[in-house]
Structures are given as structure tokens and as C-alpha cells.
Amino acid sequence: LKDPTVTANSADEFLQMMKDCPFECQLENVSFISEGDTVVMAFDSVTTEPTQNRMRMCSIMKFENGKLRSEEMFYDSAKMPKEALDAMNKNKVA
Question: Would you say the C-alpha torsion 74, 78, 83, 89 has a positive or negative sign?
């Protein structure tokens, strides 16, 4: 996973990052576009704790042999509340 605020270089790092995630959030307004082994997902990330925030995001996922191989996320981290950025930096994997 590569995104504007965090990076995980293995499945184990990603799973640990999700376990340590300081947010409670859900995805809304999700849409997908796929071509071959590449899937693009556009969505609203709606965070309720520790801060409230809604942000439009895009994720490009690449699959290999039916398994997720990589994901790159795009969003404007400047639109994240300061408390959310502080929490992300505190729990940053890499």
C-alpha cells in the first residue's frame, strides 16, 4: 500500500497498520472500474472517530493470480483534520 500519509511494504505491515488504525470509518458512494488485473475504486471515506471528516478518495489496485498485489491511494491530505494527520503520523508504518 502506498498513499499520501502511510506506506506498507508487505501484507503483514498492512494488517498491522489496519489493526492499529486510530480511526473509525466507513466507505460510501463506492464505484469501481476494472480493466484486466487493475481495479480503480472511487469512494468517500467517512471518519467518525477521533474526528469527523468526509473525503473523496481513489484507489488503484493491481491483482495477480486473483490476489491483491498492490494498492496506491490518492487523496488530498491537506483536507484531513489536523487531529487525523497527527494520529496517522503517530501510527505511521513507514
Answer: positive
Look at residue 91 and tell me whether its pLDDT is greater than 60.
no
* Neighbour-count burial of 1, counting CB atoms closer than 10 A to its CB (0-12 exposed, 13-18 middle, 19+ buried): buried
> Which residues partner with 93 through β-bridges?
none
Q: Distance (Å, rounded) from C-alpha 52 to C-alpha 23?
A: 10
pTM: 0.74
C-alpha–C-alpha distance, residues 5 and 89, integer Å:
7
Residue 60 has pLDDT above 90, yes or no: yes
Cα Rg for the chain, rounded, in angstroms?
Answer: 13
Name the burial class of residue 66, with classes exposed (0-12), middle (13-18) and buried (19+) by CB atoms within 10 angstroms of its CB: exposed
